[in-house]
Amino acid sequence: MVIAISLVEAVAHLVDFLGMGILLKSQEKIRLGDAPILPESIIKGDRWNQPVGQTTFITQKIQNNQSATHYFFTAWEKENLKWAQQENFENMMKTQAEELSSPVKVTIK
CA 95 to CA 78: how far, in whole Å? Predict the structure, then answer.
């Protein structure tokens, strides 16, 4: 599984931490990178184009008439203080990736 994470350091002009992540199968990843931050000359005065801090993007291989599976994660420090630390958020996503990569086997006797 591939994990793409962004830790947003400002929400509504407050100093809150919001973790956001996407999880998908490694073989479906095309590209992973940092999203560009718009220059001040472009965003000035436009509340919808404000920079959001460290932002990452990921692209996924898809095919016509086939499902694309990916998982979105978010966590806000106001819900749990441990989410203010990126390492804690990454570890939660890694645990989820391990669980999703290990299918459940059921045997009926």
Answer: 22
